[in-house]
């Protein structure tokens, strides 16, 4: 039995990871530490609520006492750190919480792991700290080229800067204390359980409610999209087999402009749900401040070293995803009632 501390496991990618791991392995136990911020949702974990190998703990990764207690109570083999403030637009409005959770929270976890795993310079056999990072730490690309693991960090938003800060602290623990770590840097994820502040679920929800579809700037910014379960499989592979101290980029060479994504969603919903959902709903709005133009991952290292390849192609994954939101309207309705409306007005009114 291997015991994992998964942080942020009630969020989008974390919950997909918990579900993936518990449905793939019987010898994995997961302690899921999540603060349940606006982005955390226990409904994401309904499928594993009766699974005896899943323990949910509501709490903050910045809470030293709680994190220390969990390390004493459970003999963790792995820490997989998903917990973060994750939305660029929010980071532009409220950067402090990004510095606090993303940087200080990561340091709190590193310290607790070091205390539990290291005795006189010798580390617990097989233990590993995996930091779930993002390609956004590399900054922005022009029309050509890709992010490699060797690309210098050049983050621009408070979000990506805080993630780069966390990556540097993880590297510091590896370099200074020989802590066993890996860092994964993945491109944009899409799939079930994504909070509708992010492009794809926001556009789906707005289409269904016949609200304008806000496209920032000229709509030609490019993101490299990966189906979330493929990301979860990559994290599992890196945790088990990644070379200690290494960074692995994760992406599937699937670059799309934002306007292409928006039009794909409209076309699917027009054909399958309601023919009054049309491109007339598109509204070009004021651009995001400091908007990164293009992200694109070179995944050669993870493919050659670990044999990881994306399994869900975009053409299938995007349909699966839109259909999932159609089949799970209750999930969306619960999330978008209450404070979501307030967020939406604050973010989009006057744009
Ligand atoms: P999310 O916002 O959906 O989920 C974040 C989760 O962390 C939530 O459940 C939230 O409650 C929890 N959390 C926030 N602050 C916390 C704290 N202080 N203590 C404990 N829990 C806390 O984010 P996501 O999209 O699932 O992203 C997960 C991780 O993957 C993040 O680290 C993000 O930087 C990284 N990442 C995301 C993407 C993407 O496309 N979404 C791509 C690459 C990397
Ligand atoms: P997002 O899903 O916020 O991810 P990230 O900024 O981390 O890449 O945004 C994806 C792209 O979509 C990004 O270029 C910004 C753009 N976007 C819009 O055009 N309209 C929107 O309402 C949102 C949320 C994003």
From TrEMBL:
Any Gene Ontology biological process: nucleotide-sugar metabolic process
Source superkingdom: Bacteria
Pfam families: GDP_Man_Dehyd (PF16363)
InterPro entries cross-referenced by the UniProt entry: dTDP_Gluc_deHydtase, NAD(P)-bd_dom, NAD(P)-bd_dom_sf
An example Gene Ontology molecular-function term: dTDP-glucose 4,6-dehydratase activity
Catalytic activity: dTDP-alpha-D-glucose = dTDP-4-dehydro-6-deoxy-alpha-D-glucose + H2O
The keyword Ion transport is assigned to this record: no
Keywords annotated in UniProt: Lyase, NAD
Cofactor(s) this protein cannot do without: NAD(+)
Domain NAD(P)-binding: 5-319
Family: Belongs to the NAD(P)-dependent epimerase/dehydratase family. dTDP-glucose dehydratase subfamily.
PANTHER family associated with the record: DTDP-D-GLUCOSE 4,6-DEHYDRATASE-RELATED
UniProt-recorded name of the protein: dTDP-glucose 4,6-dehydratase
Species assigned in the record: Youngiibacter fragilis 232.1
